[in-house]
Amino acid sequence: MRLKKATKLEESFPADRSTLRQLTKFAGSGGGLTINFDAMLLGERIFWDPATDTLTIKGTPPNLRDQLQRRTSGGN
Fold this sequence. Notes:
Layout: H1 17-24, E1 25-30, E2 33-38, E3 46-49, E4 54-57, H2 62-72
Antiparallel strand pairs: 1-2, 3-4
């Protein structure tokens, strides 16, 4: 019977920033829309309805809200 040597793993190692971002963020763009958000917000402030393919955002960022309010109040 042949025994295999155990491979020693380091306690820590540098994370690949690109891979880590894919695990912690959602991002997408197309049709004039670009969006990205932390994955932890899904189900808390951002809700996806797969039946209607709709994202709902609860609590827009202040700078976005200001732009929307200016546009809808007639001040382009």
